[in-house]
Write a structure and sequence with these properties.
The protein is of the alpha+beta class and 205 residues long. Helices cover 24% and strands 20% of the residues. The protein is built from six helices and twelve strands. It has helices at residues 6-16, 18-22, 26-34, 48-51, 105-114, 122-131, and strands at 41-43, 67-68, 79-80, 89-92, 118-119, 141-143, 147-148, 159-165, 180-186, 194-196, 198-199, 201-204. The strands form four sheets. A five-stranded mixed β-sheet has the order 2-9-8-6-10. A three-stranded antiparallel β-sheet has the order 1-4-12.
């Protein structure tokens, strides 16, 4: 699954109004994209709560807004666990993490770091699905363990953000079946249909 060019990515973000939410002029975003690497993902500072409703399924699926699960009202407080460049920046070498299906984030993240890779942040995951909806498939979606919520005592909340496709059950509601869902899974739980997404590097633009 190839990403659009950075220039095309910037145009999509402008068309959707993401640049306004991120507080960057449209022309400035276009200018930065024109000088970035050809095969990267353009990531802005737009909050997760603003990006999630813009997500759509790939292919001929009925157009439905993406959504954040009801019990994640604090989604915008989930922040990168590592230093990332000031946004906008580019993430390179994205991998959905299919090799880590049925593995917990607790098991997988140390392996990724040891291999010189970095767990994808929630912002990166959202921008990825926004630009390449086909990266989410039934039974092949992903967690974004590069973003976590730090408690007042310095420890991390056990919730791990993830992006997948709603079945329209429970509190999601039947009207949201097949919509892109921003939810969470436990740091110590494994799921056969959620990989551990990662990237190779990040570069400022």
């Amino acid at each position: 699954m190839a990403l659009p060019s950075l220039i095309d990515q910037a145009e999509r973000l402008v068309r959707l109004g993401v640049h306004d939410v991120a507080g960057i002029p449209a022309d400035r975003l276009r200018e930065l994209a024109a000088h970035g690497p050809a095969d990267g993902l353009l990531v802005t500072s737009a909050p997760a709560s603003a990006l999630a409703p813009l997500l759509r399924r790939a292919g001929g699926h009925e157009e439905k807004d993406g959504f954040v699960v009801e019990d994640m009202t604090d989604v915008d407080l989930f922040a990168p666990t590592d230093d990332v460049p000031a946004a906008p920046y580019v993430a390179l070498g994205l991998d959905r993490g299919d090799a880590y299906l049925d593995r917990t984030p607790a098991e997988s993240v140390p392996e990724l770091l040891a291999a010189g890779r970095s767990p994808v942040t929630l912002a990166e995951g959202l921008h990825w699905v926004l630009q390449e909806p086909g990266v989410l498939e039934r039974n092949a979606c992903f967690m974004t363990p590069g973003s976590r919520l730090r408690r007042a005592d310095g420890s991390y909340d056990a919730r791990t953000p993830a992006l997948w496709i709603s079945n329209g059950t429970g509190r999601d509601g039947r009207e949201r079946r097949d919509a892109v869902k921003l939810g969470w899974c436990w740091w110590g739980n494994r799921h056969t249909w959620l990989g551990i997404a990662s990237c190779g590097e990040r570069r400022p633009v």
